[in-house]
Specification:
Layout (H helix, E strand, L loop, with lengths): L15 E10 L2 E12 L3 E10 L2 E4 L11 E9 L5 E8 L4 E7 L2 E4 L7 E9 L2 E8 L5 E6 L2 E4 L16
Antiparallel strand pairs: 1-2, 2-3, 3-4, 5-6, 6-7, 7-8, 9-10, 10-11, 11-12
């Protein structure tokens, strides 16, 4: 087994970064989290970010001119083909929207027509299974499988933070 060596990863310029998740796939180290950069009007804009080794990739949140302000990441998945999925939400002036990023490309759940957050991301038979809430806090616990949403009970208030999938 290879001994871990302390390395400095690329740092955000004029901002902050937060590494939250780590995974090792095909003997490569993947780290997921967020980076923030200053913005003249909004203060800081937080973007989904992942590192493979010491190479950083920052995901797209959308145009500030179109109202997109920030994002947050709550989980990471790396598949066997080394596709990196980050899950969380995108934020605009009206709310937070469940979002995942595949290799930095933004995917809004339900075309941004529902507010909420994704807290967990897994795969089942090659399809994404997402766990989270409709609305943001407090919200209604739900799962998304493909583009279909599953709500256990519309009257329950709470959040789904993670899940275990047994094939």
């Amino acid at each position: 087994m290879e001994k871990w060596k302390k390395k400095k990863s690329s740092k955000p310029t004029h901002g902050d970064g937060e590494a939250k998740y780590i995974d090792i796939v095909n003997n490569k180290k993947f780290i997921g989290g967020t980076t923030s950069a200053p913005h003249n009007f909004l203060g800081y804009i937080t973007k989904p970010t992942y590192w493979i080794g010491d190479q950083r990739k920052t995901g797209n949140i959308g145009s500030v001119d179109e109202g997109w302000q920030s994002s947050e990441v709550f989980d990471m998945l790396v598949d066997d083909q080394e596709n990196v999925y980050l899950a969380g939400f995108s934020q605009d002036m009206d709310g937070e929207y469940p979002t995942y990023w595949k290799n930095g490309e933004k995917h809004l759940i339900s075309n941004g027509e529902v507010s909420g957050v994704i807290r967990g991301i897994k795969t089942v038979d090659g399809e994404l299974l997402l766990a989270g809430t409709l609305s943001y806090f407090p919200g209604t616990p739900c799962l998304w499988f493909g583009e279909k949403i599953y709500v256990y009970d519309q009257n329950v208030v709470g959040e789904v933070w993670d899940m275990l999938v047994i094939n």
